[in-house]
Amino acid sequence: MITSVRFTPVAVALLTILLAAPAPAQQRDRLVDGIAAVVNSNPITYGQVRELLMFRQRSLSEMYQGEELQAEMKKSQDAALKDLIDRQLIIDYFNAEGFKIPEYVVEDRINTLIREEFGGDRQAFVRTLKAQGFTLGRFRQIERDKIIVQAMRQRAVRSDFVISPDKVTAYYRKNISQYSTPAEIKLSMIVLRPEFDGSDNPVEVKRAMAKEIREKLVSGADFAGIAQMYSDDSTADFGGDWGWIDERTLTGSLSKIAFALKPGTLSDVVQVGDTFYIMKVEAKKPGIVQPLSEVRDEITKKLIEEERIRMQDRWIDTLREKAYVKIY
User: Are the beta carbons of 289 and 180 closer than 8 angstroms?
Assistant: First the structure.
């Protein structure tokens, strides 16, 4: 991109997404990389799929590796191709029905973009398009198609449906964990692992050490100081402090014992495998569940949006049934 053009990261992302719309014949000539699908008489190229995935796949490459990355990339590619097919189905239906989008609506959207993302500098906007290999006319067509898709998706959704209270209650009960904060404890722990260096009974040596350490703690020794001196855990330098944890942090047996302790008390020496643990709970926080009355509106909005998406998907399915769609 030429250095004289100044624009925000949002503008870059927006342009990249918009420019991934179906390309005209002259633009397809630049993407001599094969056809991914055909919708009626409109080809969708692999280049269009790659453009739509540009930012998404960069993010995936930072999150995954190896086979998992390949699997996520494939899922993203399939989703992008489906999105492009759905767009074309909607645009074909719009044209077949003889609908029109007033030109001022398109121009207003472009002017809003220039004002918000390019500080009102139309020339900077045009230079950015040129650097991307697009003309203003091509961008206007892309934006027109985007408006068409948005408007037709909205048109496909009934406005008179309601979400029943029973459905809201059922969703709340099924997803109660989303509206719950688990109980937590502030935990300190000393961990003793045997050293298998050829000495006799290394496990018994650590067991005896653990019992001796606990006796010192019961007698008033400083837990943090003892942990720094003897613990084999990575938290030793911090006095064995694990901070606030919930029941999922520790293994099942340790978690059960730790959460049964009262604040300020020590556990017995706990053996798990060949490792010994001494735990101290400093404080406790009870779990909290938001009542349905507090989240009813949030759940209702979520279910309304899910229903809107289902209606749109059903409508696109009917378009797909009536169209010619070939995926290569």
Answer: yes
Phi then psi dihedrals of residue 155, to 5 deg: -65, -30
What contacts 24+ positions apart, CB below 8 Å, involve 247-255? Answer: 247/182, 247/183, 248/182, 254/279
Q: Is the pLDDT of residue 13 over 70?
A: no
CA distance 172 to 277: 39
Burial of 307 (0-12, 13-18, 19+ CB in 10 A): middle
Each residue's pLDDT tens digit, 54-86 = 767 778 888 888 899 899 989 999 999 999 999
Strand pairing class (180-181; 184-192): unpaired
Q: H helices of 97-135, where?
A: 103-117, 122-131
Q: Residue 96 corresponds to which tokens in the numbers above?
A: 């077949």
| DSSP letter string, 19-70 | TTSPP-HHHHTT--S-EEEEETTEEEEHHHHHHHHHHHHHHHHHH--HHHHH
Which pair of tokens denotes residue 90?
A: 């909607």
Compute the CA torsion angle 50, 52, 58, 63 (nearest 10 deg).
-110
Gyration radius of the chain's alpha carbons:
31
Task: Read off φ and ψ for residue 133, nearest 5 degrees.
Answer: 90, 20
Right CATH number for 183-286 from 1.20.1290.10, 3.40.190.290, 3.30.450.40, 3.10.50.40?
3.10.50.40
Per-residue pLDDT of 236-268, as tens digits, reads 999 999 999 999 999 889 999 999 999 999 999
What's the CATH superfamily of 9-155?
Porin chaperone SurA, peptide-binding domain (1.10.4030.10)
| Alpha helices (H) in 156-251, listed in sequence order | 165-174, 202-218, 223-230
Q: Which two tokens stand for residue 15?
A: 């342009």
